[in-house]
Design goal:
Rossmann fold; 412 residues; six-stranded mixed sheet; 3 domains; 12 strands; Arc Repressor Mutant, subunit A; alpha/beta
Amino acid sequence: MAKNPGTELRTKAPAAKPAARRVALAFPTRLGHLHSIVRGIMDYAQQHGNWIFTTSGEAHDLSVRALNRWRGNGVITLLDTEAEARAARRLKVPVVTFVGTLRKPGIPRVMRDQPAIGRMAAEHLLARGFRNFGYYGVKEVGYSIDRGEAFANRLKEHYLSFSHYLSPNMFDRRHPWDDEMDALCRWIRKLPMPIGIFTANDARGRMVADACKMVGRHVPEEVGIIGVDNSQLDCEFGSPKLTTIACEWHLVGFETAKLLDSLMCGDPPPEKDLLISPSGVIARESTDVMIADHPAVAKAIAFTRAHLSERFGVKSLVAAAGVSRRYLETSFARSLGRTPSQYLMGARVETAKALLEKRGLTFSRIARDCGFSDLRQFRRVFTRLEKETPSQYRARRRSINGKEESRAPAAF
């Protein structure tokens, strides 16, 4: 009797893992945002590779110069000096970096878009009504130079100039801390008020805020401050809280690992740096002001800030300013470079962005609290100004914040 062949069950054999690669993380992984970058690197490795990481144990600070006899496949490193860059170029394995301290390190790099950061800072201070500007940067540091140049170029498009002050990039016996703060105070005393100051990073932003206290300058009424990095220590722990330009650090790490993987597979290095755009301005107390050099504009702004949650339009601004509509529109154009309607809608959207960061608030509640006539108007205006819907903005910000919170370094 013939056997019933039945049903043959076949299981697909598990895909073979790629050969393990040894990758060195030659940078201080415990500092600043680097833990988020590390998580981005790890996430890429888990999804696309079989990597064994070389670090420096509990020191968390492996130097690229210690890898000259290391037997591995690739290196991700932080290069702060030309000596470190030369050591990286001498290695016999692919090396990539993700920092902009050196303008031309000579190795493939994933980097934040420094010119975009400078332009974003200028736009934010311009939108706050400042017409005097300053830049506090760091001498001989690539990212500081690039950000400052882009900041200046954006202001030149508006026929505006700025004052700049550059300080040493490290404080040692030749450059004591008190000497630097004294020099910073002298610079701030000479600046015209009110003034918007862009700092190369948040640490410098906090120094400007402290110097303003020392010389009796009020932030943000006399000095508006915007930094870069969204460093919790510098932005949140101190008064006032600092406005900053944020970056998706996890994405920087992920793309850096992706670049290294392609090089380890034999692909040619890219001719230019791979750039990561800044994720946006996080507005805090240090720029929570609207500067107006015209009395009618100042009255309209004061009315807006006091009644923003209410439903009103340009007609109410005209009444508050005590001038004709045509006169107010002309004054707004000269003082802020925008119409009263554009200013009002922009103020409502900025408030909405802050509320979208909070949990538990519905879109309808946010629309109402920001003075929009209804949810439809809120969505239409927000999307026109931000180039994304309120829902998309909230999802993007929560994704970034969630990754940052989940990547807090472990306590030792």
